[in-house]
Amino acid sequence: MAYNIVSLNELTAQFKKLPGIGEKTAQRLAFYVITAPEEYATRFSSALLSARSKIRLCKNCQALSDSEVCPVCSDAARDTGIICVVSDPKDVLAFERTREYRGVYHVLHGVISPLDGVSPDKLKIRELLARLSDGNVREVIMATDPTVEGEATASYIARFIKPMGIKITRLAYGVPVGGNLEYADEVTLQRALEGRNEI
Amino acid sequence: MAYNIVSLNELTAQFKKLPGIGEKTAQRLAFYVITAPEEYATRFSSALLSARSKIRLCKNCQALSDSEVCPVCSDAARDTGIICVVSDPKDVLAFERTREYRGVYHVLHGVISPLDGVSPDKLKIRELLARLSDGNVREVIMATDPTVEGEATASYIARFIKPMGIKITRLAYGVPVGGNLEYADEVTLQRALEGRNEI
């Protein structure tokens, strides 16, 4: 482009690397930053560095944390006898939003996916099994995504846990609350029928 | 939320301030940053600071620039006899993308909008009139947005320029190329009819 403002182009390029942000949006965001009060760029800039350098994995459950042990694991009121196994750190936040779950978590950081080169040893499965070895855990909830890879990962891990005599459960399948039956796919509907409850 | 990771929440908050970025997207972007290679956060961070501190307005046309005079104004091949007046710095990039326009620009930095407290003296109108006073400009293209405020701003400025004997033009109205007539509003269609050309 003839109109080459180096520092603006560089900022646009950085925005464009974010997931779901295309060229036009990146440009719009970059323009916003340079026209917003200077304080914004300064705060944004240090928030980036601070988050990236401070956040690590909880040594216990592998969730994201800015201390050695995450807020859930360090909360004495949580039931450490129930572990909810999720694939992604974001899933922990989704469960916490329900304000219902009182157990703890374990984050796998991915699902088994041979096509993407993700073998079981790349996931935090060893760390999960180590947590189960002390005999205090009564139940493991497999809460990986309801996808082919999520199912396969759950089955794979279940095979190791079953011999330990720990109860393993899976999230219920069914139609989403507030959803429209018309748009539900047949597999979901079939599972919703299978899991029907008396009212 | 129970799950309170201070530095992550702060980064999410900064993303959320960007236009068009809601809570969920902000969270997704923040997660991306903390899981991407550390180099990304560092480069993004310095791009923010650099763009914000280096970019200023071209002393001539008021477009964004990282030098005293913008790339267009400092290009000797451009025709300084034609000035395209736009309301927003982003509009300069839009025109430059056409690779057709060979004149120069003038950025007003807004449109007259009494309801939003934008009076004519808040815009770079004085700077535009100063540029026209040396008698070298043959034509001023009013390229403010085709909105009520854009029109009003164009008319307002035209009143000052007309007495100088300089030709004033306005962008053509019509149906957008590649658009679907079915979805064109009646005003646009009416203008397209009025401006019809023989083929």
Task: Kindly describe this structure.
By secondary structure, chain A is α/β, with parallel strands linked by helices. Chain A folds into two domains: 6-54, Helicase, Ruva Protein, domain 3; 64-198, Dna Topoisomerase Vi A Subunit, Chain: A, domain 2. Helix content of chain A is 41%, strand content 13%. Chain A contains seven helices and six strands. Chain A has helices at residues 6-16, 23-35, 38-54, 89-98, 125-132, 148-161, 186-194, and strands at 56-57, 64-65, 79-86, 103-107, 139-142, 167-170. A four-stranded parallel β-sheet of chain A has the order 4-3-5-6. In chain A, strands 1-2 form a two-stranded antiparallel sheet. In chain A, strand 1 (56-57) and strand 2 (64-65) form a beta hairpin. In chain A, helix 1 (6-16) crosses helix 2. The longest helix of chain A is centred in the first third of the chain and has 17 residues, at 38-54. Chain A starts with 5 loop residues before the first helix and ends in a 5-residue tail after the last helix. The model of chain A has no long low-confidence stretch (mean pLDDT 90). Chains A and B meet through helix 1, helix 2, helix 3, strand 2 and helix 4 of A and helix 1, helix 2, helix 3, strand 2 and helix 4 of B.
Structural class determined from secondary elements of chain A: alpha/beta
Largest sheet geometry of chain A: 4 strands, parallel
State the share of residues found in helices of chain A, binned by percent.
40-55%
The chain pair with the largest interface is: A-B, 59 and 59 residues
Question: How many β-strand runs of chain A?
Answer: 6
Please compute the radius of gyration of chain A using only Cα atoms: 22 Å
CATH fold name of the largest domain in chain A: Dna Topoisomerase Vi A Subunit, Chain: A, domain 2
First-last Cα distance of chain A: 65 Å
What's the domain count of chain A? 2
The number of helices of chain A is 7
| Oligomeric description of these chains | homodimer
State the name of the first-level CATH class of the largest domain in chain A: Alpha Beta
Identify the CATH architecture of the largest domain in chain A: 3-Layer(aba) Sandwich
